[in-house]
């Protein structure tokens, strides 16, 4: 101890500058490749600058706002974005919303409830004349109408068919009567209901002549658009504080015999005539489209939020120093130079790239598929329609798995990055605590993750069973072919070589994941069939196999992510290919090590090969570490978007963190010194042993 | 769709009542067993009632308080607890704090900073006369003095030896000069500094006659105790909002040449004389004691918080219904009846019991060890001292691993339980969002988890190397014996039988985990030696092996948890033994399936045996599900402590959730209708194409 000397202090700015000296790839080119071209990058940069310069869009003080201030600030920004949304090209609006989803996720939700959910319901479920009617009333531009989306109820979330709200047709007046029969029928979590919306797209049981036709959508006016007074029979309350996204005013709504015109039911699919005839649609699956879009967009969201988290954690790790391995008095070591810190962050970096590239490919596929379906129109028969519906089902199932595992992956990335900041991760001003709270809801809404994984797993089991009967496999499940042909026995594919190059090549990793995914699906089939053999119903046999079904969905989704990642690497510009290849290998290898049991059980890798793979993970971390900061630069977020003093481009973390904290929390006298602290410090212990009793003296 | 009918609604109260009809064990007896006897349970119940009846202790409205209100509310409770802490027996005070740590973790920290950290530093590091002096000044009872704990700095957390604050001895005045030389030397995260503390135990480099003796502790007065004005040279600021625990006022402190008497250095261990002689202690390890106590207490905290999370999630799952597997119109299925939901919650229940019983045993062992050390006094030589120091080292390492993996386990339990509530988990009023934010810091403070796991791993590697040289193994590592004796080759232990009984018996599971832990430690030894073989220094070889070292610490800690759990099961009253045995089996089996790769690689289980083990996990979940609600009852938390309408004992979740939300958020007119919403709705698009230019007309 006697010789201990305080460590020398290194300048944080030069600590990060040296990280940028020799990137292995052209940073700007990677940004273009991630964004989808220079034009997109330029537009995003223009939007980031516009937001940064607008005082309304200040976000660094968010932690210090009260709930009321938070909501008012958010509302004040709605108008500007609504005007831009109608005035500017759609592509630019979408990019703006992408950036806003990272900068201010709660605002993004408040805005999205109107444009995405309420107007989206009109677009997807209204007839052309209905859509025209609502657009003329200002439903697109928020001129006259602000909308919310009334699906979830207090007692009913995932099971939309089980909603209790009713819309009963009254032939006499040509109206529907919308009613909440019970407390659990109360519409709950309705974003925008508490403070913002004039109208609501209400999901309710359609009841005509005493018969229930299931859940349909109805536009119900909530408030007078001039006075904002609640309409007769409508009661609304505020759900108050949430875990995150307090920018949006979620509320509850109860309907008490509220009458709306028949034409306020959205009738693109099911129609109700004046005389009470109900005409049901030929092609119910088309309604899947909107669901898929929401899920696909959450893969992008996961990627975009993960980019920010890793920018903060990686840059801080390149500046923060702790412990010295050299002589006393030497400069402490950067966190990023510790192998364990590389292990904490760099596999998450690889996951983020997997999500970036998968998001891009599934978005493109989705757009293509929607084009095909739109061309088909209502034509529900024929080979083209069959093919499209098959693809729709596949996309529906795959997007369910992707939504679940990517949102979980991103939530984990945020928290791991936050923990990697040490104590400073617990400050509200370093960005990731709030990012976690804001993001967490992504695992629940638009389909609870666990339920989505089971949907995906059910599709995988059903597809395997169909394939066994000779039906062709969709392209993304072609890996099942070899396994299936062997009459249900497990795939015997193995890794041929033992060298690090052989066990960790992208071809080997793709084969490994395909083989293990096939295995997992066949295990779920086995459990499902065991359930049937026990005499369970089909549904109960699926429940019985749910653990292995969830697992099959996980293995399939990781396999899908790896394949999409590799496909993008293959198409990438040559100068980017080495670093992207290494990231793809790290994604596949690290995930395989995390699930080594499955790879050993399937026999693809031996125990020795798994050890070699672990060695490759170490190697890849060491290599990617050299490019860690350049990779965050390539994400292309400005300091404004990163919104964390620890994630600054210039590395000047301590000065700017101190400045931010002190400017937001100016020193003031302790407000309760006189009332609470002084009396505490100056109190004496009053003790009371009671009067002396006569009877005691007599003894 | 035509035949869809709304599902029948079941009464939540009878849904939960039926769960309590046939528990397999006497609930009350399990409560006594968990608490450590009827007397403890009775005391806890008395304390819970006292808190519930005290209006100051209302906690259901916490989500709606501002930061300023939150802090003032917390301060208002300090006095009552300070009086009780001195007036009532220590055991009762400890139980009260245990309950408070669950009811109001932020307050617990505010109170604990004075009693645990500041006063704890005096107890642990002051000489008897120093301790007497500070107690006379009111340091124990907060009469005259409120304390905070000044260790962490803006630029220095885990590396205490690297702190920059200096305390330089001035022989001329017999004073120390305490100084923050740089911005990064600013004391940071100091709980109580912003608003509460008059004094601080400051960690600073002791510099005497130009020589640095390393980090020691000094009591520095921050504020005048009568006026609360800052002392000369002391600057303090507020760190503002945090992820959680906003009840405590964390601040920063900068010292500018602050002079304190020499006697304000705590001199139990190192002493400085008037003439500047520095006398260093013989037995430096004794300072470990306080560290260990903090870690051990976090195992209890993890268990106590996990109990609350599981009470909420399990009771809600027994009431909440979603989807119907029967005929249309039939009652929906309880969440807890879905196998996947059992898989989500019941392994977490098993983990919670593992932590409960481990916490109890390590606390008892710690007390015993401290007693031995205290009897030894400063005697640093001889067999007894050697033995005690060896045990201290072992306890230090094991407690490091336990602190890390139990806090991570609990954080995961909270979030999994929250997600299992679906959308309602995102409300601030259902309890688990805040529980997560409050608990998260446990993974960082009192030793960053990752660093602690590496400390534990380093001890394991060193112990294995010592054992290879013939040194005896500590009892908790006796499982290394077989592996070591084979000269470093891997343990060849295997599971003998293939039946579910054989693969999942407690004896098999203990052997399985011991074998795999031994394996993991030897792998870390192998990597460490590979580092040495590469010519790395010892420290760098440890860094090189950090991934496998962390893994070894995980495997050892899980093995330790399983062994402690089983030891408690073996001692438990006969009527409790069947359910506790099943829970211990589920803990061991589920954790093994989660890490199946390791069990397959070590060869303990074959692939077929792992499949059998998975089948056992399914079976155990189905069995424990029958007792799920009774198990939460046995945790013994009143509705006040559970503090979530979804976790109510009587199952009346919807009515009480609605009541709470509406009472805390009464309906009011939208505050910004006139200023923001009306102008939005009524705006027209002003377009401006500019004046017609003459030059254009000329064309």
Per-chain topology:
Two copies of one chain form a homodimer.
Chain A: H1 12-17, H2 27-35, H3 38-53, H4 67-87, H5 90-103, H6 105-125, H7 128-136, E1 147-150, E2 166-170, E3 175-179, E4 187-191, E5 199-208, E6 211-221, E7 234-238, E8 250-255, E9 258-261, E10 271-272, E11 278-279, H8 288-317, H9 339-376, H10 383-420, H11 432-439, H12 449-468, H13 480-485, H14 500-504, H15 506-533, H16 538-544, H17 546-571, H18 577-594, H19 596-601, H20 607-625, H21 628-635, H22 639-642, H23 653-664, H24 673-682, H25 694-698
Parallel strand pairs in A: 1-5, 2-5
Antiparallel strand pairs in A: 2-3, 3-9, 4-8, 5-6, 7-8, 10-11
Cα(first) to Cα(last) distance of chain A is: 67 Å
- Radius of gyration of chain A, rounded? 29 Å
Quantity of strands of chain A, as a count: 11
How can the largest sheet of chain A be summarized? 6 strands, mixed
Helix content of chain A: 40-55%
Specify which chain pair forms the largest interface. A-B, 148 and 146 residues
Total of DSSP H or I helical runs spanning 4+ residues of chain A = 25
- Mean pLDDT of chain A, as a whole number? 93
What structural category do the secondary elements of chain A indicate? alpha+beta
Strand content of chain A: 5-15%
Oligomer designation: homodimer
Low-confidence stretches of chain A: 1-7
Question: How does the overall form of chain A come out from the CA principal axes?
Answer: globular
């Amino acid at each position: 101890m006697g010789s201990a000397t305080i460590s020398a202090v290194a300048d944080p700015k030069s600590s990060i500058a040296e990280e940028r000296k020799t990137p292995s790839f052209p940073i700007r080119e990677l940004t273009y490749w991630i964004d989808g071209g220079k034009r997109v990058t330029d537009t995003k940069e223009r939007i980031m600058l516009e937001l940064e310069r607008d005082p309304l869009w200040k976000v660094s003080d968010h932690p210090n706002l009260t709930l009321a201030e938070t909501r008012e600030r958010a509302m004040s920004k709605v108008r500007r974005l609504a005007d831009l949304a109608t005035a500017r090209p759609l592509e630019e609006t979408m990019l703006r919303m992408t950036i806003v989803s990272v900068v201010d996720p709660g605002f993004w939700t408040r805005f999205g409830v109107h444009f995405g959910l309420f107007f989206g319901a009109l677009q997807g479920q209204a007839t052309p004349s209905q859509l025209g009617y609502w657009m003329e009333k200002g439903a697109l531009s928020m001129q006259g109408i602000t909308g919310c989306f009334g699906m979830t109820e207090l007692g009913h979330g995932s099971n939309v068919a089980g909603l209790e709200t009713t819309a009963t047709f009254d032939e006499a007046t040509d109206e529907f009567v919308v009613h909440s029969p019970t407390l659990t029928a109360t519409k709950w979590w309705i974003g925008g209901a508490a403070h913002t919306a004039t109208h609501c797209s209400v999901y309710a049981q359609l009841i005509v002549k005493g018969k229930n036709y299931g859940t349909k959508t109805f536009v119900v006016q909530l408030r007078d658009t001039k006075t904002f007074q609640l309409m007769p029979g409508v009661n609304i309350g505020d759900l108050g504080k949430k875990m995150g996204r307090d920018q949006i005013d979620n509320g509850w709504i109860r309907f008490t015999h509220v009458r709306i015109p028949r034409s306020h039911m959205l009738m693109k699919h099911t129609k109700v005539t004046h005389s009470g005839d109900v005409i049901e649609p030929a092609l119910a699956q088309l309604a899947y489209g909107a669901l898929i879009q929401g899920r696909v967009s959450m893969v992008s969201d996961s990627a975009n939020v993960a980019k920010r988290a890793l920018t903060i954690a990686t840059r801080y790790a390149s500046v923060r120093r702790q412990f010295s391995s050299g002589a006393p008095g030497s400069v402490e070591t950067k966190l990023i130079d510790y192998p364990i810190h590389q292990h904490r962050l760099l596999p998450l970096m690889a996951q983020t790239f997997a999500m970036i590239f998968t998001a891009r490919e599934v978005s493109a596929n989705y757009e293509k598929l929607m084009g095909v379906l739109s061309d088909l129109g209502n034509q529900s028969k024929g080979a083209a329609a069959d093919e499209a519906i098959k693809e729709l089902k596949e996309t529906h199932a795959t997007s369910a798995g992707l939504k679940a595992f990517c949102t979980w992956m991103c939530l984990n990335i945020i928290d791991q990055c936050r923990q990697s900041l040490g104590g400073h991760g617990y400050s509200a001003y370093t960005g990731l605590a709030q990012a976690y709270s804001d993001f967490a809801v992504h695992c629940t809404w638009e389909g609870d993750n666990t339920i989505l994984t089971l949907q995906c797993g059910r599709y995988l089991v059903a597809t395997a069973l169909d394939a066994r009967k000779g039906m062709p496999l969709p392209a993304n499940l072609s890996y099942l072919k070899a396994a299936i042909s062997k009459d249900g026995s497990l795939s015997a594919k193995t890794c041929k070589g033992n060298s690090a190059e052989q066990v960790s090549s992208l071809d080997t990793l793709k084969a490994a994941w395909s083989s293990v995914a096939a295995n997992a699906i066949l295990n779920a089939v086995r459990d499902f069939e065991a359930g049937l053999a026990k005499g369970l119903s089909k549904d109960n046999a699926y429940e019985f196999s749910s653990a292995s079904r969830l697992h099959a969905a996980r293995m399939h989704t990781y396999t899908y992510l790896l394949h999409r990642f590799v496909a993008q690497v293959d198409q990438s510009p040559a100068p980017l290919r080495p670093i992207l290849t290494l990231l793809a290998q790290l994604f596949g290898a690290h995930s395989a090590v995390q699930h080594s049991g499955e790879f050993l059980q399937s026999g693809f890798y031996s125990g020795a090969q798994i050890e070699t793979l672990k060695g490759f993970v170490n190697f890849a971390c060491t290599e990617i570490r050299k490019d860690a900061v350049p990779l965050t630069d390539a994400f292309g977020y400005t300091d404004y978007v990163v919104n964390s003093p620890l994630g600054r481009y210039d590395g000047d973390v301590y000065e700017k963190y101190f400045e931010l904290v002190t400017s937001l929390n100016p020193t003031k006298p302790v407000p309760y010194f006189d009332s609470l602290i002084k009396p505490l410090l100056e109190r004496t212990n009053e003790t009371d042993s009671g009067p002396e009793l006569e009877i005691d003296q007599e003894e």
